[in-house]
Amino acid sequence: MTFDLNKIKQEDLEFKISSTVDIGKPDSGPRRFSGVGYSGEPITGHPFWGLVAFDLSGMQVPNPMPILLGHDPDKIVGFSQKFSTEGSLKLEGLLSRKTEFGRHVEELSDEGFPWQMSVRIKPLVIEELMQGASGEVNGKTLTGPAVIFRKSKISETSFTPIGWDDKTSATALSLTTIKKEDDMSTELEAKVKQLTEELLASNTQLEVAKTAISSLTSEINTFKEAEIGAAKSLRFSKVKELFMKMKKEPTEDAVIPFMSMDEVTFELVLSNIDEMSRTLTPKDLFSEQAIGDPSKGGASVTSKLVQDAERRASEFAKRK
User: For the whole prediction, is pTM greater than 0.85?
Assistant: First the structure.
């Protein structure tokens, strides 16, 4: 199975993780959370990837990182402040009391609801293990069929009611011992908002660039078509000049072989028409023969004149 990373659906990049949340007693300030977002062990039974593991050494983790509810970008729960990928993906951060979703997670946790965690992780480099093949990941051997994300990027982590990795954990704590970090919460929330706005602006700029490229491509194609038309018009005027020298009527069938000549051959015909007229008889100049099967695209050409022009063009090319 070959994976096209550009066609993978967003829901196929979501990996829910069993991580029971234990929130401490309410405090006057925002609540902290800490936990293991990914244990480093393989995840089994994913509906798209099946058996899959993420190489911690190749994992990119943003800091700060948005913490959402159910992978919904409109439902902000908080943000992470610290992370570690030594042996497992560990996260620490704050639950926001400025959003209804942060308060929702906190209040349900106080009632004993077993929140779990889920990461949205995009593969950058994939190693696919076929049946019976094996590979090393996070100090362990994984046997195929399986998939290993050798390089990956986490875009966000979410609180969810279900998970797949039962070797992870998460804990939400009161903020009694981290007053200094409380003072940074407003500033960090502003940074997360700024990053979100910058991302939206970048997407807008990308769409503008795509539109500009499409417009320029259209202009280039129009210019090329104009050039081709001008070249055909110039060639036709020269063909008419040629037929005037030969004192021959430029009928549609008679003009075709001259219009299809390459530039070197045609210029030789044009510049040597007087000499060629002396060496070739009128019958040679204007007799026509079929080249190929006319029913399959074969063309009728002025045989002696074209053959002599092609011979002269070949000799000219050799001298160069």
Answer: no
**pLDDT value at residue 298:** 46
Average confidence (pLDDT) over 70-91: 90
Going by DSSP bridges, is the β-strand pair 59-60/146-160 parallel, antiparallel, or unpaired? parallel
Report the chain's mean pLDDT, rounded to a whole number. 75
Instruction: Look at 315 and 155; give whichever has higher pLDDT.
Output: 155
